[in-house]
Design a protein that fits this description.
By secondary structure, the protein is α+β, with helices and mostly antiparallel strands. The protein contains 15 helices and 19 strands.
């Protein structure tokens, strides 16, 4: 596609691309691959040729909207029921879905939304939130840190030592969050990053993914270490001075079950008083059913909050056989979902990275009807308006190119907030300009970091 044709398709919200660094194509490839080595990111012949540039207004809008949406989801999830047991019933969740609640419900609720990474596409009217990952287990933080490091090295600071872009630093924002929590709870500055290298898309026994951040935390005056899920008893089963009372819960319970890794050591650590962020209540906030509650409207929402949700959240409903409203018209939801296949997507409430998502326009009619009816009977899914994602321009490099080439891509944009602090921004896109929810570690997708000027 020519540059002029590509330009005509670009949504004005994006602005234009950043010029690539004044480096050889080989240097751009080498520096990026060096920075992202051994963090579980799959090898690809495609690499970005420059960081993804957003106008300052668009960049700020995403952080601001993410903070507002996370706050509304926090309230909607807690308002769904006054106790954890009642929320479990509303979300039709099981102990297998959410097994790691703390004994202290106030701590549970306070730190439920301290780590947030939404997946946003830019539709015809602007940013649209497809889902919010609210947990300690989502990917993107380390990947963004490495991506920013690569571009800083490649642009070399420019004249006067200044870079031609600016960005937030993910590790710094997360360290600031944990610094605040230590102060709030009067905890020693000893942190454990609890996870497993076995969750990596690319099999590895190397721990660089975790070591990069714990090394940074140590440089900030913490005593930080990486602990495998199976070794979580080490957080508490020791002399008091050697315990780790605080840390990051950097794993997905469902993924651990698939890998055959038990969570019993983590359960014992929590019972012994360890706090791993974010708390299990974050599961309610990240459940797509909470988006359905918010989209349908809650009694406590102000007119401004209704308008915000209308602007940024595609029409979303918890899928059951009942009546609801579409654009002010009352409809029978099950019938509406079946009849409007081309306009809708069905998503399981629990799940991320495109798993358990059925796109109506890409599904055979009989299969769509079966999916909708099954989901409505279970009551644990949502139906959401399909968003026509708009393209942007991105310099891209392959092993065969002598210089980056500007091509149209359809990105999923993910700003990160840690303790409501901006923490950098990630995008993911396919090199062939196709659209959809994309895993950070997808073998067929590219990731890049977002900057502004």
């Amino acid at each position: 596609m020519s540059q002029s044709v590509a330009d005509s398709r670009i949504h004005p919200w994006f602005g234009g691309p950043l010029d690539p660094p004044k480096a050889t194509a080989e240097d751009i490839r080498t520096v990026q691959r060096h920075e992202i080595r051994d963090i579980g990111h799959p090898d690809s012949e495609y690499l970005p040729g420059a960081p993804f540039l957003l106008p300052r207004s668009s960049y700020a809008e995403l952080f601001r909207a993410t903070d507002t949406m996370a706050g509304l989801l926090h309230r909607a999830a807690l308002e769904a029921g006054p106790t954890t047991a009642e929320r479990m019933a509303v979300f039709r969740a099981t102990d297998q879905d959410y097994p790691l609640f703390l004994a202290d419900p106030l701590i549970e609720e306070r730190y439920a939304s301290c780590l947030v990474r939404p997946d946003i596409v830019i539709g015809p009217t602007g940013p649209q939130f497809l889902e919010l990952n609210i947990s300690g287990g989502f990917a993107g933080t380390v990947e963004s840190h490495c991506g920013y490091a690569a571009w800083r090295a490649l642009y070399g600071g420019g004249a006067g030592g200044e870079l031609p872009f600016s960005h937030y630093e993910p590790f710094a924002a997360r360290a600031d969050l944990f610094d605040t929590v230590c102060a709030e709870l009067a905890l020693p500055r000893r942190l454990a990053w609890v996870g497993t290298v076995r969750e990596s898309t690319v099999p590895t026994d190397r721990t660089r993914y975790f070591d990069l951040e714990t090394d940074y935390l140590n440089s900030r005056g913490f005593e930080a270490r990486y602990v495998e899920v199976a070794d979580a008893d080490e957080l508490w089963d020791c002399a008091p001075r050697d315990r780790y009372p605080l840390g990051l819960r950097h794993f997905n319970v469902a993924d651990l079950a698939t890998l055959g890794i038990g969570i019993e050591p983590v359960r014992r650590a929590l019972d012994a008083g360890c706090l791993l962020l974010s708390t299990q209540t974050s599961g309610f906030l990240g459940n797509k059913m909470a988006l359905g509650l918010l989209s349908e409207g809650r009694p406590w929402m102000s007119a401004a909050e209704h308008a915000f949700v209308e602007r940024y959240l595609p029409w979303t409903r918890v899928l059951t056989d009942r009546r609801t409203h579409v654009g002010g018209t009352e409809v029978q939801l099950l019938r509406y979902a079946i009849d409007h296949q081309e306009d809708l997507v069905v998503k399981r409430g629990i799940g991320s990275n495109g798993r358990q998502v059925v796109i109506g326009r890409e599904t055979e009619a009989g299969m769509w009807r079966e999916t909708v009816e099954s989901a409505a009977a279970a009551g644990t899914s949502v139906v959401q308006r399909f968003v026509e994602a708009q393209p942007a321009l991105q310099p891209v490099l392959t092993d065969a190119l002598d210089a980056p080439e500007v091509v149209p891509v359809t990105p999923v944009v993910s700003p990160m907030l840690f303790g409501r602090r901006p923490a950098g921004m990630l995008i993911r896109f396919f090199a062939d300009d196709s659209a959809g929810i994309i895993s950070v570690a997808s073998r067929s997708a590219m990731f890049n970091v977002v900057v502004t000027q």
